[in-house]
């Protein structure tokens, strides 16, 4: 895996956008074709649940199965192309100091928490609730008429979800750490929707969701 | 095993109806809770792409990530259930002669079919035209007022794809022989949408999708000692959520 590690030459001083998204919060922004987008894991082992939509037509959106099948690869890292539901390249990962990102595990939800952990976990914070909240409040979404219909299998940046050759899927300890980042170039104008995961039932973040930093360069 | 041998496992008197979907085609129907369908690969090498929606609330739909992480598996077989995005069991795999069904690779679109197999349109090939999985699923979805926004990661019955340590995927050619079957019990009232087009990672260079037979019977609801219900704590809780929904 180490051969995938590629550092970026970009510096935060030159970024046109530099914001922190706290754990449990949503974050939405438009990223123009050609711009570079970095997600930085500030304290380590944080899962950043992320969806992308075509800014021109959000019916075209990130497709986990197209991304997996078109590259015949399960994990995302430097060189991975993030494909849309129309088979178009949305973004290309151009730097990655973590080495592996998940796109099979999806987002936690109030309802799936009742299944995965216990029936009484429903009131806890969850990524799908955060996505829904963002779609109803963020300026990037409200004029696009987006809803639950638009929530599909997402990327979990910094998450480690290894699958063995005989098909066993596990949630392993994070391979990320404080200061690790993933950087991608937008191949079309995209809207990015993030839920900075608030999961408190899963040992892989040491039961401690933490903030992430988001940067964009022209 | 021949097709005849395996069909003896089904009580023929109890079969409600049967239908064959030709290779390269698409199908949809409303399947009531308590009904089971046996899907049989008639020729070998079939790929049956399937999507599931709650008939009463089509915003509730099959959720591939929840299905995989709830059961700690990257494929489906006997004992596995298909979760909806609302924490319920939509259907259960109660019988399987194959042991592995893919759900991580999606379907092909028209451009991929043409790039891989060439062009065979209706004008020249009539009903033998080459069709894509995505077009077929979207046609069926449209019959219920659904569209691209409702198209999510699907199950690919009869196909096997395995990863190596780095996550590189390999399609297992010859996995499904003629007569292979999978038995799916529906635990909710489900809109079932199907396509019998080639799997996206099938390396075959000729377009020769296999036909799939559907045989329906009343299986009833999952009992307290049901193997799928008791396969893991997650499945037990998902069944509780489903049963509360229908109280
Ligand atoms: Zn989450």
TrEMBL record, chain A:
Coiled coil start-end: none
DUF1989 domain segment(s): 20-191
InterPro entries: DUF1989, UAAP2
Domain of life, per lineage: Bacteria
Transmembrane domains' residue ranges: none
Protein name: Urea carboxylase
From TrEMBL, chain B:
Leader sequence segment: none
Coiled-coil features, chain-numbered ranges: none
TM helices/strands, residue ranges: none
InterPro entries in UniProt: DUF1989, UAAP1
Pfam family, one: DUF1989
Domain (DUF1989): residue spans on this chain: 19-191
NCBIfam families membership: urea_degr_2
Protein name, UniProt field: Urea carboxylase
Species in which this protein is naturally found: Methyloradius palustris
């Amino acid at each position: 895996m180490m051969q995938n590690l590629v550092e970026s030459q970009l510096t935060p001083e030159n970024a046109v956008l530099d914001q922190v998204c706290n754990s449990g919060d949503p974050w939405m922004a438009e990223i123009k074709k050609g711009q570079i987008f970095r997600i930085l894991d500030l304290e380590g082992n944080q899962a950043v649940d992320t969806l992308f939509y075509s800014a021109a037509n959000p019916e075209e959106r990130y497709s986990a199965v197209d991304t997996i099948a078109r590259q015949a690869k399960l994990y995302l890292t430097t060189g991975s192309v993030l494909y849309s539901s129309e088979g178009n390249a949305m973004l290309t990962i151009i730097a990655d100091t973590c080495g592996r990102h998940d796109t099979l595990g999806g987002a936690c939800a109030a309802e799936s928490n009742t299944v995965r952990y216990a029936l009484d976990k429903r009131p806890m914070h969850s990524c799908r609730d955060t996505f829904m909240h963002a779609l109803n409040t963020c300026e990037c979404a409200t004029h696009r008429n987006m809803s639950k219909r638009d929530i599909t299998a997402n990327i979990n940046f910094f998450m480690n979800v290894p699958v063995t050759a005989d098909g066993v899927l596990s949630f392993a300890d994070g391979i990320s750490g404080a200061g690790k980042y993933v950087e991608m170039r937008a191949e079309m104008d995209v809207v990015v929707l993030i839920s900075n995961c608030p999961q408190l039932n899963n040992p892989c973040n040491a039961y401690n969701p933490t903030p992430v930093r988001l940067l964009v360069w022209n | 095993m021949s097709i005849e041998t395996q069909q003896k496992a089904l009580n023929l008197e109890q079969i409600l109806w049967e239908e064959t979907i030709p290779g390269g085609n698409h199908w949809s129907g409303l399947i009531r809770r308590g009904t089971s369908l046996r899907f049989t690969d008639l020729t070998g090498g079939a790929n049956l792409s399937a999507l599931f929606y709650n008939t009463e609330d089509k915003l509730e739909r099959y959720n591939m990530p929840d299905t995989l992480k709830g059961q700690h598996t990257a494929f489906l077989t006997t004992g596995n259930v298909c979760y909806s995005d609302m924490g319920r069991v939509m259907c259960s795999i109660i019988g399987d002669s194959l042991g592995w069904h893919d759900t991580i690779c999606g379907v092909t679109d028209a451009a991929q079919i043409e790039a891989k197999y060439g062009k065979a349109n209706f004008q020249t090939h009539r009903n033998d035209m080459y069709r894509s999985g995505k077009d077929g699923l979207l046609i069926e979805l449209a019959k219920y007022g659904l569209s691209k926004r409702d198209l999510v990661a699907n199950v690919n019955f009869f196909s096997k794809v395995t990863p190596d340590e780095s996550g590189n995927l390999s399609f297992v050619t010859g996995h499904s022989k003629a007569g292979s079957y999978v038995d799916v019990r529906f635990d909710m009232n489900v809109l079932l949408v199907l396509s019998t087009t080639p799997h996206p990672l099938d390396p075959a260079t000729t377009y020769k999708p296999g036909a799939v037979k559907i045989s329906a019977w009343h299986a009833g609801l999952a009992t307290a000692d049901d193997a799928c219900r008791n396969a893991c704590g997650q499945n037990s809780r998902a069944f509780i959520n489903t049963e509360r929904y229908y109280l």
